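Query structure, 75 tokens:
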């Protein structure tokens, strides 16, 4: 999937992946996509809740070897 910016949040525990995701999205324009990589298992539910609360679109969520990958489109 194409993305405009990548955030490596591996090794960070809740709530840091969400805080860093919010900050990274602030640097993007509407419609741009952020790729987030995390190792925190709690980030799966956190990213879903974050997207709903902020109105951003969680386009894809997947588990990869050793972590999780999320693609979020800024509203």
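Result returned for the query:
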């Amino acid at each position: 999937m194409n993305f405009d910016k990548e955030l490596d949040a591996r090794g960070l525990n809740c709530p840091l992946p969400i805080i860093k995701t919010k900050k990274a999205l602030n640097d993007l324009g509407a419609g741009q996509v952020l790729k987030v990589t995390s190792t925190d298992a709690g980030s799966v539910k956190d990213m879903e809740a974050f997207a709903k609360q902020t109105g951003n679109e969680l386009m894809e969520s997947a588990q990869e070897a050793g972590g999780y990958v999320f693609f979020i489109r800024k509203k």
